[in-house]
Amino acid sequence: MPATGSRIEAWTLLFQSYFDIEVNTDESSSKARKLYGAVSECREELEEIISKNLAKGWTLTRISKESRAVLSLALYEILHDEKTPNAVAINEAIEIIKVYGADEDYRFVNAILDKYAN
Q: 5-19+30-117 domain in CATH 3.40.190.10?
């Protein structure tokens, strides 16, 4: 099942924000803008969770920006979006990273999200 458009849009905005450039949300859907804004507001909290669930010796800077963005998006939904079941947030994250990440990134993303959600 392909990831929904608004999640892909929000992921794209989050990914862009890791490059210290101004992110233009003008052409994004309202749902994507809201999701991007909400995740951005919680970025510190989300990145702390990601860091705590990494293998020993790993840091956030070692993770691809694609993976950081998708992990932040999924963790936000798991923590703060009661309408989205955890399994859906995880599946959507995996589908996004399969398309936009490196070959094995989806395994890494799945492991982090599964470890946190369970």
A: no
Domain residue spans of the chain: 5-19+30-117
Is 80 in contact with 38 (CB distance < 8 Å)?
yes
pTM, two decimal places: 0.93
- Length of the chain equals 118
| Structure tokens belonging to residue 118 | 């369970």
3-state secondary structure of 54: coil
**How far is the first Cα of the chain from the last one, in angstroms, to the nearest whole number?**
23
Type of residue at 33: R
Nearest CA to 112 out of 24, 31, 50 is that of 50
Residue 79 has what pLDDT? 95
